[in-house]
Amino acid sequence: MWNKLFSVISMAAILTALLAVSPAGANANDEGTFVSGVNQARAAKGLPALTVDTQLISLARGWSNKMNAGVCGEGNNICHASPISAGVTHDWAKLGENVGTGPDVKSVMDAFIASPGHYANIIDPAFTHVGIGVVWDGARLYVTQRFMKLQPAATTTTTAAPPTTTIPVTQLGTDAPAPAPAPAPAAAPATTAAPAPAPAPTTTTEAPEPVRVAPPVGNDRATVLVGALHAVD
Prior knowledge:
Blueprint: H1 8-19, H2 28-44, E1 51-52, H3 54-68, E2 92-102, H4 105-114, H5 116-122, E3 129-137, E4 140-150, E5 156-157, E6 170-171, E7 212-213, E8 217-220, H6 221-232
Parallel strand pairs: 1-3
Antiparallel strand pairs: 2-4, 2-7, 2-8, 3-4, 5-6
């Protein structure tokens, strides 16, 4: 479903935002393709597109670089940032993260869509913003998808009243309940092994790069604050 083409105007807007913050080593074109895939999956469910956030892009690229550098261990391993809220200065209410590695954008995106947990992050109606970071290491890419829901804006409205009557202020922006705490991230990333290549008849060919995706992770602000208090204790 995700590999249907988005409109040229939408893709151009995504690439403009990505290129504006693209350092050496990052691939804005591939990041734009991932964003399009995410928004196409959401559109198929009748959900609005996510807005690209430059801070989330920078944090996602930073984590993809760290995975490429071996922060998760040897052997093309992948893992989640801990906590995923590190570096986020927005007044956020909920965060989510998908990470993966593989030979190309389509293979990894297909793996995300096929995984119930990763797909749940992608089509979560609570999320409003996204930032995706892609880093290549030879023929293999590392990708981090960061999702965010902001705290509702605090707005009030007051209705004019006669001099002897006071109208109470109505608090807006609280129409949705706070999100349920997401499951804690797995201690070690799970891997999805690619199928073994078929033996070549007369010539040898290099085996395809396997696609790996770590179990998805998400936190609401209450979960993060409780975790921080436990760490202090």
